[in-house]
Amino acid sequence: MKKILVVLDASEIGQATQQYAIDLAKQFSTPLTGLAILDTPWITASQPEPLGGASFKMVRDDVLIEKSHAHLKEQMDLFKNRCAREKVNSIVLEASGFPETEIERLSYEHDLIVIGRTTDFHFELDDDSDLTVKHVVRDNPRPIITIPGKSSLGNKVLVAYDGSLQTARALHMFLLLGLGIDKELSILTISPTKEQAEEIGKKAKSISELYGAQVRLISVASDEKPEEIILKESQNNDYSLIVMGAFHKTIITEALFGSCTRNIMKRSNLPLFIHH
């Protein structure tokens, strides 16, 4: 892994996200880019205005942009100082525009994106705080780690693997980035029969061991919703990360697997490594 992008915001989850990215950068001796985003489309969006109110809105928008820029400058300085204390090589960038667009634009220069499960670009956690994350997870070509709160790197990783192209890509990318080296990987497979689950798991075990991971298989025969089994397993053991594929592209598989990914993102208290 050569370069990590972390999305900055001032929320509690945002602070935990920064620390996680710093710890990861230290582990891999990797440069870290902090991205602060001024969501100008949100600030300047059209709203119902009384007669003659348009000019007032323009003035108000300018004031909000100026205040938001000051908030971002403070965040950027704090992040830069934090990295300096931790002896992490870092740069800090400010972008203006749609958050998901700005993240995608910079993602092509990085191996991994670290982002909070909710994002506070408007300096308050509103009803849309997780929309940017959903868009980034769904559309971005780079792997992503979403952070739900205070988290540590740890040594035990749960891999949710169903043998699909998406989960195979996610596991392979996780291994290629070196994130599985010397880790204890528990590969969870779910199928109507235990034999089928075991057969699926063998392929994941084989490639994981090639990359220096210690692997155990958890083969479950069940018709229960996959997210319930994944969440139950993740809560009952000392895992520090869940690895899984993201959104499928067809309507049918999106309805099945996409909802599974979204539910785990929403309900799990562990960081989630996602790739598709």
TrEMBL record:
Biological source species: Candidatus Nucleicultrix amoebiphila FS5
Name of this chain's protein: UspA domain-containing protein
Similarity annotation: Belongs to the universal stress protein A family.
Coiled-coil regions, chain positions: none
Domain UspA: 1-118, 156-274
Pfam hit, one: Usp
Gene3D superfamilies referenced in this protein's UniProt entry, alphabetically: 3.40.50.12370
Recorded superkingdom: Bacteria
InterPro entries: Universal_stress_UspA, UspA
